[in-house]
């Protein structure tokens, strides 16, 4: 068996910068590794014919199947033998028990734990036994922190063929054996129900009754103004049609009515009493807005408490926020780009069919805004949401968002509907 050990090349770890996750870079790195292994890698003249990867994260998020890997099974771990090994080493620390370097490492960790708590080694073994026989919830925080480094649970093992012959061999082998369990138990689809928005002649008018004060009388006399009420047509005669997977980008200068327009699309919103909304057609959808997460607990816990840990894992991974340190940070400790991703993950976990995003990416640098826009677009299409996104400053990420339609609001004039390409060509070129 040792003669063929080098026919399998292993991916030890894939690390993507947290700010660049969600762009498909993992697939590109794996593809490059496969090409290099197939064409150039060898040990003693032996070329690898398979690539393997195993990782605990694959129990929660499958990030390798799309790159051609097949789930083979789970590693053995050490659960069935570690307790026996620790007992044997306690009786005869100088004995030979096979994988000595690892076993001694576990033994020292357990010894240090017992010394710190001033308990006997037998009591430490009892805690280890509880973790194995019950679950980690049966342990104190201190026991869990130490014993997690002693126990290796079985983890998913994936294999990928590197040439046509081994691909044929693997297909036949997998077909002939009983269907294995799936590697990832978290199979969730965050799809929305079929939704159509059909609104005609949406108009929003503001009215303000001018108070009769000395100051206002001076202005009215000076400029010859008459009447006691000021009117402003904020949005004029907008007809909106949208369906699942559509991204409607709302643009316009400051004061053109972008925010008011979004508010008018939310059935649960009560508009300011000075605003009058007229439209033909009813709002039958539910609407969700980006909102900050709780900032007194880790973001993973905040989402897991509301939606289950399994769903939180998947949602955070979908938006490119699958970095361990980000999971255990509170919302306020995240970068602004990570905060956007966390808020989009929460939108995914909620049930609203329509997403309303105001001042989208207005406080992000150009590169991060582009990444966030790319991820948002991907999730809107994948889950069948309808997204209305408003922003004044957007030229740096518009090509990543690629909206279905652009609604251009113009103060004092009727709006214009444009395709993404029309808006890009006619208006952004003029700015450039």
UniProtKB/TrEMBL annotation:
Signal peptide as annotated in the record: none
UniProt domain ABC transporter: residue ranges: 213-431
CDD domains: ABC_ATPase
EC number: 3.6.3.25
Alphabetized Gene3D superfamilies for the sequence: 3.40.630.30, P-loop containing nucleotide triphosphate hydrolases
Residues forming coiled coils: none
UniProt record similarity statement: Belongs to the ABC transporter superfamily.
Name under which the protein is recorded: SkfA peptide export ATP-binding protein SkfE
Annotated gene: skfE
């Amino acid at each position: 068996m040792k003669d063929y050990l080098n026919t399998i090349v292993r991916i030890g770890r894939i690390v993507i910068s947290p700010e660049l996750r969600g762009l498909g870079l993992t697939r590109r790195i794996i593809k490059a590794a496969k090409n290099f292994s197939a064409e150039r890698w060898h040990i003693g003249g032996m070329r690898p014919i398979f690539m393997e990867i195993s990782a605990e994260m694959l129990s929660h998020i499958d990030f390798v199947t799309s790159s051609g890997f097949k789930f083979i099974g789970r590693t053995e771990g050490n659960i069935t033998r570690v307790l026996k090994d620790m007992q044997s080493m306690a009786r005869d620390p100088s004995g030979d028990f096979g994988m000595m370097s690892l076993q001694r490492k576990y033994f020292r960790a357990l010894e240090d734990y017992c010394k710190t708590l001033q308990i006997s080694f037998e009591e430490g073994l009892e805690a280890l036994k509880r973790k194995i026989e019950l679950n980690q919830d049966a342990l104190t925080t201190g026991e869990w922190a130490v014993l997690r480094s002693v126990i290796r649970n079985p983890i998913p093992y994936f294999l990928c063929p590197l040439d046509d012959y081994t691909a044929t061999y693997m297909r036949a082998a997998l077909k002939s054996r009983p269907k294995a369990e799936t590697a990832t138990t978290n199979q969730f689809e965050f799809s929305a129900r079929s939704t159509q928005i059909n609104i005609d002649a949406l108009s929003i008018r503001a009215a303000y009754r001018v108070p009769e004060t000395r100051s206002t009388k001076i202005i009215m006399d000076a400029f010859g103004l008459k009447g006691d009420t000021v009117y402003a047509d904020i949005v004029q005669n907008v007809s909106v049609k949208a369906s699942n997977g559509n991204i409607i980008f709302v643009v316009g200068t400051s004061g053109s009515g972008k925010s008011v327009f979004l508010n008018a699309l939310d059935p649960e919103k009560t508009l300011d009493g000075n605003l009058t909304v007229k439209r033909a057609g009813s709002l039958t959808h539910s609407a969700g807005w980006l909102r900050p997460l709780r900032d007194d607990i880790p973001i993973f816990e905040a989402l897991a408490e509301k939606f289950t840990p399994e769903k939180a894992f998947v949602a955070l991974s979908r938006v490119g926020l699958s970095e361990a340190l980000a999971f255990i940070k509170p919302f306020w400790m995240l970068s602004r780009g990570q905060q956007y991703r966390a808020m989009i993950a929460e939108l995914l976990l909620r049930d609203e069919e329509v997403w309303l995003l105001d001042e989208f990416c207005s406080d992000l640098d150009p590169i991060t805004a582009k990444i966030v826009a790319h991820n948002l677009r991907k999730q809107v299409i994948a889950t069948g949401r309808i997204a209305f996104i408003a922003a004044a400053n957007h030229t740096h990420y518009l090509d990543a968002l690629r909206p279905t339609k652009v609604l251009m609001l113009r103060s004092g004039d009727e709006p214009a509907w444009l395709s993404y390409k029309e808006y890009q060509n006619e208006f952004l070129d003029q700015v450039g």
